[in-house]
């Protein structure tokens, strides 16, 4: 028995072609996507146990010999479906720029320093309630060539699996009240204002650790299953 | 600490951007352990071992060096390594998932086994296929497609291929090289030979 996923939820996503984001112009399909019913191939999905994740993979500040430069932060939240159910055992992978806005990547030529104590990748598996937690460094904004004086708002990339191949999600977590929001075509590729707001984390004073780290909450919401299960054979 | 409030909607997708390699496809080039590789093969897996190779092109026919592809498939008996598939799984350690980044020339490859037959929602057989997700810079949401195989007679009756105009089905069909367990399928994100992508 599996469950079907309503496709209405997909309206929250960006349109493939968002011309303000120049890289989308030659990479978005011109032809309409072909709707299809979900089969077992779409309704099943990779399930990952803890063997994929090493101890400490969720702390990006302790992966090297020394302390990284920057503002230490905790990023935590729940992976839920849109019906509010926690999604347990879901692999969450993150990658990000360092505090100066520089990625460890051969093609990132932004003239900001690389930090030998920060390489910017982590992963964890959500617990039985769907809860996940990372310790990292607040990433910096960085320039990119999309338009004159283009800077990406500070963000952390997240990759999440959920229960089915159709719940697969890659998104970006932003920080509250970033002045770059109005100017960023990737953030603004999400047409609905409320949906855009769901990509912005909230400052979580209660879970800040005194004398050590600020805290941001980011709940990740995946597509929810229809109430009616589908029988299969 | 989990509240029971129903969220207002899903978290929107965003592009993986150009700089995902360290985190998602380090492949020995960066000092971060791979969560996944481009192979699904496990020592106990049964079935025909195959390799799928191809290149990825944009709307100008230029190779795309910064996409990530993920595959998900049944084993040779048509079973998924997912607790939602209640049928017995003969290949205990086979997962059926792999991930690959394209290289500077847009090349990708997967080593896997030929999947078996999976039923559609009406219980009718689907031709052997692999589902494929394409993530990349410039792609605000990943694209979903399928890989079929040129040497499968069942393609003619496949209910999903039947949704695709006949002149576009070749974009989903990996072509077997004579005498080798090797299939080739190029992906075109846009243009005259645009790959068929599905709305799921």
From TrEMBL, chain A:
Name one process (GO BP) from the record.
Answer: 3,4-dihydroxybenzoate catabolic process
- Report the PROSITE patterns cross-referenced here: INTRADIOL_DIOXYGENAS
Output the Pfam families linked to this UniProt entry: Dioxygenase_C, PCDO_beta_N
- State one molecular function term (GO): protocatechuate 3,4-dioxygenase activity
The chain positions of domain Intradiol ring-cleavage dioxygenases read: 75-103
> Known InterPro entries for this protein?
Intradiol_dOase_C, Intradiol_dOase_core, Intradiol_RC_Dioxygenase, PCDO_beta_N, Protocat_dOase_b
- Top enzyme category: oxidoreductase
This protein's superkingdom?
A: Bacteria
Q: Which SUPFAM superfamilies has this protein been placed in?
A: Aromatic compound dioxygenase
Q: What is its EC number?
A: 1.13.11.3
Name the UniProt key words of this record, in alphabetical order: Dioxygenase, Oxidoreductase
Q: Which family does it belong to?
A: Belongs to the intradiol ring-cleavage dioxygenase family.
Name the UniProt record assigns to this protein: Protocatechuate 3,4-dioxygenase subunit beta
Q: Which organism is it from?
A: Bradyrhizobium arachidis
TrEMBL record, chain B:
- Give yes or no: UniProt keyword Oxidoreductase: yes
Identify the residues that the record assigns to the Intradiol ring-cleavage dioxygenases domain, covering every copy. 52-80
Assigned keywords, A-Z: Dioxygenase, Oxidoreductase
Give, as one word, the top-level EC class.
oxidoreductase
Pfam families registered for this protein in UniProt: Dioxygenase_C (PF00775)
* InterPro entries to which the protein is assigned, alphabetical: Intradiol_dOase_C (IPR000627), Intradiol_dOase_core (IPR015889), Intradiol_RC_Dioxygenase (IPR050770), Protocat_dOase_a (IPR012786)
The question of whether Repressor is a record keyword is answered with no
- Protein origin, superkingdom: Bacteria
Q: State the family it belongs to.
A: Belongs to the intradiol ring-cleavage dioxygenase family.
Q: What is this protein called?
A: Protocatechuate 3,4-dioxygenase subunit alpha
List the top taxonomic levels of the source: Bacteria, Pseudomonadati, Pseudomonadota, Alphaproteobacteria, Hyphomicrobiales
| Gene from which this protein is expressed | pcaG
């Amino acid at each position: 028995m599996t469950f079907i996923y309503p496709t209405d939820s997909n309206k929250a996503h960006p349109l493939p072609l968002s011309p303000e984001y120049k890289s989308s112009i030659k990479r978005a399909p011109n032809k309409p996507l072909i709707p299809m019913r979900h089969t077992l191939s779409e309704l099943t999905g990779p399930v990952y146990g803890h063997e994929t994740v090493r101890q400490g993979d969720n702390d990006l500040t302790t992966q090297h010999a020394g302390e990284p430069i920057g503002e230490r932060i905790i990023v935590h939240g729940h992976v839920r479906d849109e019906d509010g159910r926690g999604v347990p055992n879901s692999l969450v992978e993150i990658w990000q720029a360092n505090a100066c806005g520089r990625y460890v990547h051969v093609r990132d030529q932004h003239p900001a320093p690389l930090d030998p104590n920060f390489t910017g990748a982590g992963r964890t598996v959500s617990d039985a309630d769907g809860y996940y937690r990372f310790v990292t460094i607040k990433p910096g904004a960085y320039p990119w060539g999309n338009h004159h004086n283009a800077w990406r708002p500070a963000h952390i990339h997240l990759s999440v699996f959920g229960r089915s191949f159709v719940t697969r999600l890659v998104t970006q977590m932003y920080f509250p009240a970033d002045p770059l929001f109005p100017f960023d075509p990737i953030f603004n590729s999400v047409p609905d204002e409320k949906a855009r707001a769901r990509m912005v984390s909230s400052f979580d004073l209660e879970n800040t650790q005194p004398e050590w780290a600020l805290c941001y909450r980011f709940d990740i919401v995946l597509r929810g299953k229809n109430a009616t299960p589908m029988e299969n054979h | 600490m989990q509240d029971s409030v129903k969220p207002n909607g899903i978290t929107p997708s965003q592009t993986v951007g150009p700089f995902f390699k360290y985190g998602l496809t380090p492949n020995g080039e960066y000092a971060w352990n791979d969560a996944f590789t481009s192979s699904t093969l496990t020592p106990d897996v049964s079935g025909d071992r195959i390799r799928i190779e191809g290149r990825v092109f944009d709307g100008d026919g230029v190779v795309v060096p910064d996409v990530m592809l993920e595959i998900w498939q049944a084993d040779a008996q048509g079973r998924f390594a997912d607790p939602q598939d209640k049928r017995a799984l003969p290949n205990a350690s086979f997962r059926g998932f792999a991930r690959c980044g394209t290289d500077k020339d847009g090349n990708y490859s997967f080593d896997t086994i030929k999947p078996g037959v999976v039923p559609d929602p009406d219980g009718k057989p689907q031709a052997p296929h692999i589902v494929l997700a394409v993530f990349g810079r410039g792609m605000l949401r990943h694209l979903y497609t399928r890989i079929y195989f040129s040497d499968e007679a069942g393609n003619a009756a496949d209910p999903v291929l039947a949704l695709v105009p006949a002149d576009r089905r070749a974009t989903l069909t990996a072509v077997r090289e004579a005498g080798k367990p090797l299939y080739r399928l190029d992906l075109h994100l846009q243009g005259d030979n645009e790959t068929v992508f599905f709305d799921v």
